[in-house]
Amino acid sequence: MSNLGLGIDAGGTQTRWALADAAGAIVAEGSVGGMSATQMGSAAGRDAVRGLFAMLATQVLAAGRPLRVCAGLTGFDGVGTQATQLLAEVLKLAPAAISMRNDVEIAYLDSFAPGEGYLVYAGTGSIAAWIDADGQFHRAGGRGVTLDDGGGGFWIAREAMRHIWRMEDEQPGVWQQSAMARAVFDQIGGSDWSLSRQFIYGQERGAIGQLALAVAASADADPVARNILERAGSELARIALALVGRYGPRPIVLGGRAAHLHPLIAQSMRAALPAELPVTQRHTLAHHAAARIALHSCH
Hints:
By secondary structure, the chain is α/β, with parallel strands linked by helices.
């Protein structure tokens, strides 16, 4: 195949890729492990990214040879070219054929033309984004899970674990009466503190964020889980309102895998926003969008 665009969505949990033809049809796709821009700050991290890019290139080149690449990388701030160079090497392309962006920019351009509206994106973390008519990227939130990222998957997982272990401090064994705690411990592999400690402190943030799935699964049976998801929606509304306050009212799209965990998240966000603000929930396949952008918009 010729005249193919390669789109990459590199997140903390999974890196997905897709090839699109000149008409925008997806002709192949696949995935490798998770990665982020923060890994480029150490030799070990760069080696890990290089290895994952090599695996990705093997899959891609077996399906077709791309002419251009548009890659969205979690945490990418536009500074430095190491990730671009690594990707160019394994794909045997000139660096100029590769556009590296923040993954949220890709999701935004799949939802709006520049200047049109605000994207609230909830994955492992959370961010509200606006690309203005001049192409300038503006944000609220997205400061990382240590500082905030309210409403994202990691935040949901952390809030659940915090509640569970505070209750255990007060009433050891009370977790057995909580549908959320039972679901959480089932996913972790047991109720011993040593297992929770290893889960929270011994993994990448994307893997920890997967625990939000257990919270969502128990929400219909556990009021604490429901409350956490409702507060997640309020957190996402907060960052949306930050952009509205700075740049004026515009339509809002809610996207990201965490936003789709349970209807309560979108419902709570909608309830916390002014009624006159249009809000649409959208399931975005960022690697598909990036593949199409690669041929039409990245250069």
